[in-house]
Design goal:
The protein has helices at 3-35, 37-40, 50-81, and strands at 44-45, 48-49. The chain has 86 residues and is mostly helical. Helix 1 runs antiparallel to helix 3 (50-81). The chain crosses the membrane at residues 17-40, 52-72.
Length: 86
């Protein structure tokens, strides 16, 4: 595999990880917190409903999880392509 092919494979994998993270981010923040909030209103969580929980706390926890997922996955991808920092 040439250096150009390796770089293209790395970039394609990187973009796939970014797109997956963005879809999850949009679904949680805009979907669950705003659009689907009325449907989630009947599910109690911590003294409130699930839609409010996603809008206030759940989205923040998911965002933190996405940060750790992205860092872990990119470190693994870097090692696979030989561009890691170690």
């Amino acid at each position: 595999m040439s250096a150009k092919d390796s770089a293209m494979a790395y970039w394609k994998a990187n973009l796939r990880i970014i797109w997956i993270s963005l879809v999850i981010w949009a679904l949680v923040s805009f979907g669950f917190g705003i659009l689907l909030r009325p449907l989630l209103a009947g599910i109690p969580v911590g003294g409130s409903d699930l839609g409010f929980w996603f809008a206030q706390q759940g989205s923040i926890l998911v965002f933190l999880g996405l940060i750790f997922f992205y860092a872990w996955r990119m470190n693994r991808l870097d090692r696979e392509h030989g561009v890691d920092e170690e």
